[in-house]
Amino acid sequence: MSSQRLLQRPPLFAGLFLIQLLFFYTSNGDVGTAAKYSPPYLPTVCYGDDSTKFPQNNLFAAAGDGIWDNGAACGRQYLVRCITSVEGSCMPDKAILVKVVDLALNLSQPSAGGSTIVLSLTAFEAITNSTSGSVNIEFQQ
């Protein structure tokens, strides 16, 4: 009987991830803006020309000045969701986890200057339906 009960329990990490997502949707993270940028993504301030530091799912970002923290943001991960009030601009109930790989001020062509975070094209498209250069976001480390 005890082995059947063990098989019915979800793995601990899955439970913790669900708790984190539930917490994210029921509490207020920080609010800011997200822009997008396109390749080439190298070199970066954090990792130079080392593409092995990028997540394989291409969900990464460049930190704006407000979260850069003098370089300590390199490698940090943020849960991000679109909250723009323009109807249809956001993917409903969609949050993504992005890894900081660069400094936004280092980018030559972000879609909007002064953003809190600049998302890779893949990350931006994962949370928005928007063709605009930036959206309002809620984010949490």
TrEMBL record:
UniProt xrefs under Pfam families: DPBB_1 (PF03330)
| Keywords in alphabetical order | Signal
- SUPFAM superfamilies the record matches: Barwin-like endoglucanases
PROSITE patterns listed in its UniProt record: EXPANSIN_EG45
Q: Which domain of life is it from?
A: Eukaryota
Does the record carry Signal as a key word? yes
**Endpoints of the signal sequence:** 1-29
UniProt keyword annotation of Ion transport present: no
User: What InterPro entries does the annotation carry?
Assistant: Expansin/allergen_DPBB_dom, RlpA-like_DPBB, RlpA-like_sf
Domain (Expansin-like EG45) spans 47-141
List, alphabetically, the PANTHER family matched. EG45-LIKE DOMAIN CONTAINING PROTEIN (PTHR47480), EG45-LIKE DOMAIN CONTAINING PROTEIN 1 (PTHR47480:SF1)
Q: What is this protein called?
A: EG45-like domain containing protein
Task: Write down the species.
Answer: Rhizophora mucronata
